[in-house]
Amino acid sequence: MHISLTAAQLDQPEGTRAEVTLRGVELPFSDVLSGSVQEVPVERIEGTATLTYALLSEELGADTELTREGTVCASPARSNCSAGSCRSSRTAR
């Protein structure tokens, strides 16, 4: 099962999106037809989320450092991580 969500559907700023694939979804067809599905158990979830830097900075806070493949590529005060994937770490205070 593949799900694509836009910024409007996520109630997030323009430029935000999510692409999610649910693997191993098993639902009785009778539950689907009757509309009685409350939960969807899955074996694995694969996906990609695209966030604007402004949203990421706002959500993570000023004590977060973004890194790309183990090297520093941006801090919340600077927006120089425009290409590639970034990982974040947060210092607990």
Task: Write the SSE topology.
Layout: E1 2-5, H1 7-10, E2 17-23, H2 29-34, E3 44-50, H3 53-60, E4 64-68, E5 71-74, E6 87-90
Antiparallel strand pairs: 1-2, 2-3, 4-5, 4-6
Pairing-aware structural class of the strands and helices? Answer: alpha+beta
Poorly predicted segments: 74-84
* Largest sheet composition: 3 strands, antiparallel
Helix content: 10-25%
Strand order, biggest sheet? Answer: 1-2-3
Using only C-alpha atoms, the radius of gyration works out to 18 Å
Q: Summarize the helix and strand pattern as letters.
A: EHEHEHEEE
Number of helices: 3
The rounded distance between the terminal residues' Cα atoms is 40 Å
Total strands: 6
Features:
33% strand, 3-stranded antiparallel sheet, 19% helix, 93 residues, elongated, alpha+beta
Q: Can you give me a brief rundown of this structure?
A:
This protein is α+β, with helices and mostly antiparallel strands. The protein has helices at 7-10, 29-34, 53-60, and strands at 2-5, 17-23, 44-50, 64-68, 71-74, 87-90.
